[in-house]
Design brief:
The chain is mostly beta strands and 252 residues long. 11% of the residues lie in helices and 49% in strands.
């Protein structure tokens, strides 16, 4: 297997490179907010498994807090199951390049309020899901996301409150916006303790992003991942819904 430094990273594209083959899962991502902070690359790299290198923009790594509503989460050829297929989620993620050159997402944590989803994703896919208590409040152009506590695993403890005021549509996303959102795959380590890295390809329509203003913020999930407390003003974006399709994972 190649090391993560052998293959140059694939180009960044705002549009999906193409539909995934061997499609097997689908999701709809709704009421989604991005809160991005920049970090020194060495700080993020120290938390990544062997075989991944942190991706950077203008010399900086980025870590993002992403709360949203997941619906229609189900295998591709199966009807959505009421209640189980819809849930709230908050994840902490960074941006990486794997040994095949895929510019992907690495999740430090994903909190969801459906235990069945958490168990399936942890044990069969390798995603570090946590069962939590999450709510989303909506009012006109205002959204408030709350993760009150972790239920399982309970440690490290964490809670999150994010509120945003949604602004105008961004008609011409910046290069940094594309870097932070146009990621056509994720990487997991499965089994988590001693497993190999697997790339999960994804495709969806291009993001429609809005300017957004952070009006309330309190979070412990970034520190729970082992990262220092973020500093400086974050980049905040709200996204219109997208329908995502996942292909079967491949070893990288």
């Amino acid at each position: 297997m190649s090391s993560s430094g052998d293959v140059p990273p694939q180009p960044l594209t705002a549009d999906s490179p193409g539909p995934v083959s061997r499609r097997w899962l689908r999701n709809r991502w709704d009421e989604l907010t991005f809160v991005h902070w920049r970090y020194r690359p060495d700080i993020v790299q120290a938390l990544l498994p062997d075989g991944l290198r942190v991706d950077t923009h203008a010399g900086w790594a980025y870590v993002s807090l992403v709360p949203f509503r997941m619906t229609d989460a189900t295998p591709h050829f199966v009807p959505a199951v009421p209640w189980i297929s819809a849930f709230n989620e908050t994840n902490v993620r960074t941006y990486v390049v794997d040994s095949a050159g895929n510019r992907a997402i690495w999740f430090f944590s994903l909190e969801a309020d459906r235990l069945a989803i958490v168990a399936f994703a942890r044990w069969f896919l390798g995603f570090p899901y946590v069962w939590g208590r999450l709510t989303i409040e909506r009012r006109a152009s205002w959204r408030r996301y709350v993760t009150a506590r972790r239920r399982w695993p309970k440690r490290p403890a964490s809670s999150t409150t994010v509120a945003v005021e949604i602004g105008d549509v961004i008609t011409e996303p910046s290069g940094l916006d594309v870097f932070l959102t146009a990621r056509w795959g994720t990487v997991t380590k499965w089994p988590a303790a001693r497993g190999v890295l697997r790339h999960h390809p994804v495709d969806h329509q291009a993001w429609t992003l809005h300017e957004a203003t952070l009006t309330e913020y309190a979070d412990a999930s970034i520190e729970a991942a082992g990262l220092p407390t973020p500093s400086g003003d974050p980049i905040v974006r709200y996204a219109q819904p997208v329908d995502a399709r996942f292909g079967r994972p491949t070893r990288v």
